[in-house]
Amino acid sequence: MQTKIGLISLGCAKNLVDSEHMLARLRAAGCTVVEDMAQAEVAIVNTCGFIEAAKSEAIRTILEVAAYKKTGGLRGLIVTGCLAQRYRDEIEAELPEVDAILGTGSYDDIVSAVGDVLNGKKAAYFADLTAAALEGERERLTPPWTAYLKIAEGCSNRCAYCIIPKLRGPYRSRELDALLDEARGLAASGVKELIVIAQDITKYGIDLYGERRLPALLRELCKLDFTWIRLHYLYPDQITDELVRTIAEEPKIVKYLDIPIQHVSKRLLRAMHRPGDRASFTGLLNALREHIPGLTLRTSLIVGLPGETEEEFAELCEFLQEVRIERVGVFEYSPEEGTEAAELPGQIDGETKQTRRLIVEELQSGVIDDYNASRLHQTLDVLCEGWDEEQRLYIGRSYADSVEVDGAVYFASEEAVDAGSFVRVQIDDSLGADLVGTRVG
Prior knowledge:
The protein is an alpha/beta fold and 441 residues long. The chain has helices spanning 13-28, 52-66, 68-71, 82-86, 88-94, 110-118, 164-168, 176-188, 206-209, 214-221, 241-249, 266-271, 278-291, 310-323, 350-375, and strands at residues 4-9, 32-33, 42-47, 76-81, 100-102, 123-125, 146-150, 152-153, 172-173, 193-197, 228-232, 253-258, 296-303, 327-332, 379-388, 393-397, 409-412, 422-431, 434-440.
């Protein structure tokens, strides 16, 4: 199949891994991947359908790509991913520009779908959510020095505000030996930063082995030739003493943990079917900092949940001021059809949600300023990611900065620095959420 394929992957890193698997299958079938969509004969848009903003971005992208049918050589447009799984009927009815649709259980059918659209057929592939293979080759879309290792698919947590289980199916761990084989290949290809991902990595192994196996997996990964091993995401009620010891004792595991808590009001958390409260989260985060020196924490929060009172929002703000989590992503609650929370009374208006988000972001900006000030004159290991023409400096990340979601480290160097190499940088200043320094040593 001598066909030029263009692909746009939207949404999370887990979706990106799915895109990599599809590209590998297409390469094996003889297709050529092109970066310029104007050159593509078939375009694939792998979508996110999690919240309203993601859905809007996906639809906008689909329409932008469809325009290449008139201005380029595009013969077919395929939509995959969570939006396709969630809104098959609507896409078929309202987006005639789309030629084929693949649900999240049907990524393995991508080659057949390309063949269909090249033959002028409309196609839809919607297997069971658990049908897609968890293993297989990948055509990586990340820089050569960074790669994701998806250790599980789906989610069984059933949070009241979240549609993911209906789009991705129940939690399914991958076999430990298969993960290690894949990791060995990534290490051999030159990957220096391995990012371990799943909807909830702390549950890894429970469905396969009857026990949590994340610590055992991490110990084995640390024997491989990686410099950094980064963890996304750890659910607060699943963090065990063994896991904490593993993170503390293994130098390759970066001391950066992303632990989504969403809120601290016990009443709201129970309405969301989530564990914890302000006291338990405070105790957990303080204990983690005590046992893991140099730890940087990240969390995600939702403001404007149905019924969230002024007092409960104030409690969240007080918690943030007290615990001072270094990295926080805050989102306005999005009522998603098909979720329990969308039907709850006490839905909050958009203006109030926006105001609360802005208040949290303002509070957090002070925490970031203090954190950056604490880094002044320190020397950090930085993974160089290239040259920034605007700043006229090299750009990279420290252990405290994950891909795309956190700040960066800009630095000057008298000698040329290759992207993908580690350098020592003395921090001299800050620039908003970013740090600025000079290469030393």
